[in-house]
Structure formats: C-alpha cells, structure tokens
Amino acid sequence: DAKTTQPPSMDCAEGRAANLPCNHSTISGNEYVYWYRQIHSQGPQYIIHGLKNNETNEMASLIITEDRKSSTLILPHATLRDTAVYYCIVRGTGANSKLTFGKGITLSVRP
Amino acid sequence: DTAVSQTPKYLVTQMGNDKSIKCEQNLGHDTMYWYKQDSKKFLKIMFSYNNKELIINETVPNRFSPKSPDKAHLNLHINSLELGDSAVYFCASSQEWDRGLFFGPGTRLTVL
C-alpha cells in the first residue's frame, strides 16, 4: 500500500473551514484515499473516501488533485468537537487490502 | 443502539493469565477486524475475518487467537499475557472492503 504524508498538527478557529492536506505521491491507479479521525479515547471514525472524483458528505468534503498525488479534507465549519487526530490513508482493492494508519495530523479547533 | 460493541471496556490482569475480549456488531456487516493501538498511539491491524473466514493475519504472536462464531461476532483470545500486550484493542466491521470501517469503543488492556 502507498504511504501518505501529513503535517503533524494544525489549528483553526471555531466556525472557520479546516483544510487538512495529505500527500500520497506513490498512489496507484486503483487505490482509494480514505480519511478517518480519532477523538481522544474513542475508536476511529470513518469520515469519507474517494478514488479520483471529489466527494462530499454530511461530515466533510474530499478534494483529490487531478494527478491524485495529494488530497485535502475540508471540514466546512469546524467546531470544538472536531478536535481530533485525522488520518489520511491509501488503501488498495480487495478484501485482503489493509487499512494502515500512520501518525495522522492533530487538528486543534480553538474557540 | 451501539453498532459495534466490545466487552469489557477495561481489563486489568496479571502476566501469564489468559483473557478474552468480545466484539459484536449489529450492522449486518460481512467483515470484522481487530486493531491494536499501543502507547505511542499507532493503530495496527491484527486480524480480519470475512464471513467467518480469516483473510488478514498480520505478524501477531500465536498467543493471540481470533474466533468468529458467526458473522456478527469476532472475539479475541490472548494466552499467556505479557507486559507488552498492554494496549487498547479496537474491533471494527465493514460491509464491503471498499466501504468505511466502523470501530468499537475499544478495550483498554493493562497487564501488570
């Protein structure tokens, strides 16, 4: 599975958009980009995933560059409850493909 | 209604003991997983079962044995517990391989 690179941390003001970057320059054509987050002491939570098109759901938007070498997770109106570690993961296809978590990025939302 | 549940939430035990952690999902998913999160917060996959069949088995000591009595349950049995087994263990499930995983609340295991 391809690896991802994320900054270790970032912060944003409550109510503003949080844009979390991720580099995955070695991604293969059939690999998906997944985003999860882990709020302190809880289990990881699935946010969104995509292959090459931009995706949006009730939690966030995922913007994938045309060359697929990077992506951005957008939380449109960050709240204090969005403070968490966010993981960008590249996953291959098939039932035996693994979801491998890296270090993630710690997002701190300030009042 | 809890989608993925684990019991117990906390488990404190002595070295050398045998313990089990239970996991149940009521989502009707076909695939279940066990992950381990160590003190440095790294999440690592241990096992994956699809329709009761083992499909992912990472380099985990054979003291760890997953058991899936049915599609809704994946239990983790650990023999001869060691200090290094102390961690938070997360169970998860998914409907298809390309869908999101739903994680349980975790079981914090402390080996003394």
Briefly summarize what is shown.
Chain A contains no helices and 9 strands. By secondary structure, chain A is mainly β.
Overall description:
The complex is a heterodimer of chains A (111) and B (112). Chain A is mainly β and 111 residues long. Chain A is 0% helix and 45% strand. In chain A, the strands form 2 sheets. Chain A has a 5-stranded mixed β-sheet with strand order 1-9-8-3-4, with no helix packed on it. A 4-stranded antiparallel β-sheet of chain A has the order 2-7-6-5, with no helix packed on it. The termini of chain B are far apart. Chain B is globular. Chain B has strands at 4-7, 10-13, 19-25, 31-37, 43-50, 53-57, 64-70, 73-78, 87-94, 102-103, 107-111. Chain B has no helices and 11 strands. In chain B, strands 2, 4, 5, 6, 9, 10 and 11 form a 7-stranded mixed β-sheet that branches. In chain B, strands 1-3-8-7 form a 4-stranded antiparallel β-sheet, with no helix packed on it. Chains A and B meet through strand 3, strand 4 and strand 8 of A and strand 5 and strand 10 of B.
Any chance you could write out the topology, listing elements then pairs?
The complex is a heterodimer of chains A (111) and B (112).
Chain A: E1 9-13, E2 18-23, E3 32-38, E4 45-50, E5 55-56, E6 61-64, E7 70-75, E8 84-91, E9 105-110
Parallel strand pairs in A: 1-9
Antiparallel strand pairs in A: 2-7, 3-4, 3-8, 5-6, 6-7, 8-9
Chain B: E1 4-7, E2 10-13, E3 19-25, E4 31-37, E5 43-50, E6 53-57, E7 64-70, E8 73-78, E9 87-94, E10 102-103, E11 107-111
Parallel strand pairs in B: 2-11
Antiparallel strand pairs in B: 1-3, 3-8, 4-5, 4-9, 5-6, 7-8, 9-10, 9-11
